[in-house]
Amino acid sequence: MGTEGAGFRLIAGRYRLEERVGRGGMGVVWRASDQVLGRQVAVKELLPDDSRPADDARRRRDRTFREARAVCQLRHPHIIVVHDVVEQDERPYLVMELVDGGSLADRIARHGPVDATEAARIGIALLSALRTAHEAGVLHRDIKPANVLIESGTDRVVLTDFGIAQVAGATTLTETGAFVGSPEYTAPERMSGLRTGPESDLWSLGALLCTALSGESPFRRDSIGGILHAVVTDDIRPPAQAEPLLPVVRGLLDRDPDRRLGAADAEWMLRTYLETGRTPAAPAGRGTTGPHGGGRGHRIGGSRTPKAPEPYVPTQPDVPHGGPLPSAPAQPPPARSSPRGVLVAALLVAALAGAGVSAAALLLHRHGDGGGGTPGGTATTPATRTGTAPTGSPGPGSPTATGTPSPSPSAPGTPRPTGADSRTAPSGYRTARDPAGFSLAVPEDFTRSPQGERVFYLSPGQTFRLGVKVTEPQPGGPQGVLDRSAANGASTNPGYHDGRVTRTTRGGHRAALWEFTWNGFSAAEGPRHTYDLCWEEDGRLYDVWVSAPVGKVREAREYFDVAVDTFSATGV
């Protein structure tokens, strides 16, 4: 069945194709209606390749499903939401959210380059998205302005069109010799056919930042041969407009992937620029080659400095990576294999989107999806152009934005009448003695799910999510930590609003309480409310938070208060 004139087809008995809104070399993008949930979605149809043998086409289709399911597990406010992958007439279809807005490429074409503050904001969002994808073993492989969406009204940055055209161990050329990706944004190690890893995505981001700041890639030439030469051997000359962010740009455009600036370091440097107006130097040994990005011996200083700290955002996002959790009590997961080792399950969307399908094909009006990963505001810091984060949320006992009154319990840290020892687990709770070096009381059916520095205890179905993070003290203490987190609330919690940070104490130690409402990560889970207490004690910074649907704030506040009141750093 052809795609021309095929509007109003029903796919998988659920998705009605209404209008073709984009087409590329490998796929067609449709505006569609989800007949089950009554919402508008984007559907990408992978077109058959008649030049391939039948067995090859079947393997390609099977791989598409396997890899699509892996990418469907990604949950991040700056990654396009993939709702479903289905098949009809032996053809795969990818079902995604619709985003109302234009691509970064559209924005540059219509309004010209952006300033350094906006470029830093975009870069932070993309780095955060890439860290989530890379930790899950997913490489993008086609980062360019056309694959970055800017949502109207919120300025949310959304990374779309992940790649599926290549499996682990393959070269950067397909079987037919066609290049996979966009040459002006492709890392030299991929151009040379040597390897593809997370570092290659970071090179592409460096080129994208140059384009956002100046209007064109520093590797643009008149021919493919010229582009290849520019990427692999020519001197790298970032545009003059990149001067405020030059340490980041140079670090990301280091030709040696082992020395290239890492995502955490780059994000820290950009956040520092937004906070101070100055970009710090890259950590020694990372992104510190000579002025043309080709050398190996140009370290800053005489020895390697400690790695820059990861930006402190305790609730970004407030669920662990990797999708649904087991229903049985969870044990610490086995060590994750490297992104290269799991690349077979990783390379999804660019081929499905098509190497020429405009990202603007997804830029349609959303319809009643309850958020679906779209925030209600932009990421903000004191230095951004969009102003400061929302303040003045209703305090305890006041109606929330949804009209649900929040409870009015005692302040966190105030002893509760739970017996002679306030750290005794109340009825219906159990004392979790965590391997991370703390104990606290959690509901009996909550299961543990660690994620790096953070440890989660989750109710069945993840209705209630309790998180704990223990770190070294941070600048500004608990108040400064949560003030900075609240300033970036819209970036880390979709639809963030009514945020409020108040100074308090916990057990005689200085503390701060952050309370806010947000849209949740999908239409199915709906709006949520979060309580977050941060305090310093015995030279450590402790952070405990609970999030829950807005209709269950009383239960959430009870879980939160019990967790805080029974928390002990010496209970292991």
Task: Provide a compact summary of the structure.
The chain is an alpha+beta fold and 572 residues long. The chain has helices at residues 54-72, 104-111, 116-135, 188-191, 198-214, 224-232, 246-252, 263-276, 349-353, 477-487, 489-492, 553-566, and strands at residues 10-11, 15-23, 27-34, 39-46, 82-88, 91-96, 101-103, 148-151, 157-159, 429-434, 438-443, 447-451, 454-458, 465-471, 497-506, 509-518, 528-537, 540-549. Helix content is 23%, strand content 21%.
Describe this structure in words.
Residues 15-274 form the Protein kinase domain. The chain is of the alpha+beta class. Among the domains are: 102-301, Transferase(Phosphotransferase) domain 1 (Transferase(Phosphotransferase), domain 1), CATH 1.10.510.10; 429-566, 3-Layer(aba) Sandwich (Protein Transport Mog1p, Chain A), CATH 3.40.1000. The protein has twelve helices and 18 strands. It has helices spanning 54-72, 104-111, 116-135, 188-191, 198-214, 224-232, 246-252, 263-276, 349-353, 477-487, 489-492, 553-566; strands at residues 10-11, 15-23, 27-34, 39-46, 82-88, 91-96, 101-103, 148-151, 157-159, 429-434, 438-443, 447-451, 454-458, 465-471, 497-506, 509-518, 528-537, 540-549. The strands form four sheets. It has a seven-stranded antiparallel β-sheet with strand order 12-13-14-18-17-16-15, with helices on both faces. Strands 1-2-3-4-6-5 form a six-stranded antiparallel β-sheet. Strands 7-8-9 form a three-stranded antiparallel β-sheet. A hairpin with a 2-residue loop joins strand 17 (528-537) and strand 18. The radius of gyration is 24 Å and the shape is globular. 50% of the residues are buried.
